[in-house]
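In this section we turn from sequence analysis to structure. A common task in structural bioinformatics is to predict how a protein folds when a small molecule is present, because the ligand can shape the pocket around it. The inputs are simple: the amino acid sequence and a SMILES string for the ligand, here pyridoxal-5'-phosphate. Study the lines below before reading on.
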Amino acid sequence: MSTDNSNTTNFAKDIWHKDKEHFTHPWQMFDSFSEEGSLVMARAEGSYLYDIEGKRYLDSVGGLWCTNIGQGRDEMADAIAEQIRQLTYASPFVDTTTIPAAQLASKISDLAPGSLNHVMFSCGGSTAIDSAYRLIQFYQNCRGLHQKKHIIARDGSYHGSTYLAMSIGGKKADHPPEFDYKRDDIHHVSNPNFYRATGFDTQAAFLDFLIDELEQKILDIGADKVAAFFAEPILGAGGVIVPPEGYHQRTHALCKKYDVLYVSDEVVTAFGRLGSWFASEEIFGIVPDIITCAKGLSSGYLPLGATIYSDEIHGVIAEQGRDRCFANGYTYSGHPVCCAAALKNIEIMERENIFENAKLVGDYFGEQLKTLLDLAIVGEVRGYRLMQCVEFVANKETREDFPANIDIGKIISDIADAKGLMVRPIGNLNVMSPPLILTKDEVDFIVTTLRASILEAMDSLGYNA
Ligand SMILES: Cc1ncc(COP(=O)(O)O)c(C=O)c1O
């Protein structure tokens, strides 16, 4: 072995060790982590990641639903460097701003549907959700509706991991009892997952149930007490659940009927993943009162989130709250360097017509993944465009899950890693949300590699193909 190689190996081991001893990761599993530690990524280009040993992976996870325009673009690096040289930071508080923050707020307002013309910046999706919640409280208090504070969200939803965002989220696996949650004014209704719903022959019957359930929940709490309904257009981390056709329009209509604000959590779906700037109106036909976004807004180049809200809400808070201080925001709200990155990201999306690719390749991706349905343990393939998921089951007929000691999603994703493909294991799922620049050839690689990985896993578990 050459000295160069052994230096690299020593460096890789040192980094792996430092990480294992000192970096407490989001969603770390203490038992396995203490032995296995992390896979260290060192470099990226476009849709590909390279680990510290130089092994290449097609990143079909898109970072974490976020590397929309692909990694390592010089133009992005230049825009970020230029803004750092020009102005690294100025306080956004009260009445100071910066050129990129003002330009980006205006650009987002142009792109957002309806009268959503007002933007609060934050550092990511969770804080965008927190800001939405605080805005809702301020708004209802300004209206004199001091009791109207309750929130309804869905089982299986994910809205982030601040105390509040996690309490609004309804994913049971993310609610270990060692953490506490805000429960007094947060309620959940059913996950709109038809594949796992029992007792319904058709999606239409299931949809009727979901709508009745939401209406009953509003009435049980009291319409005068329900402030807002939080919903992802497609549930993401909860398993890429596309609700039955018409779900968003009917839940939106219910919200209007009972004076309940509709918060569309587009942290994953905004900025191209489904082939549109925002999915709420373009894909699902609704104009919400508030949209939260992050991730694709800066394509993961720098941390940035936004809470976009309507003229109607702004009218109330600016008028009724005019002599009050809107005490919400962060040191880094509208950080000029992050905003400059987002502006350049949006410019690239527009110039390269990336959404056309997301539509074309996204539709092909969905079709090709469906070819995996012939495998004995593939229960369902679902999603829309560049947001897809494969669900594994022990028995296709009964939809029975694998026993808890068989972590099927992780078994398959580990095999895929070894073959140079990253997919995201979430329980019995493999979730994929690749960059919007994905090609059809790369789709073919993903599907072929995933098929080979599933077959290898089946073989090791004693399943017939
Ligand atoms: C729908 C949704 N909302 C909010 C968040 C939280 O975003 P962040 O991790 O940037 O705080 C996520 C993260 O995956 C998300 O998927």
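The first helix runs from residue 3 to 22. As an exercise, try to locate the residues that line the pyridoxal-5'-phosphate site and compare them with your own expectations.
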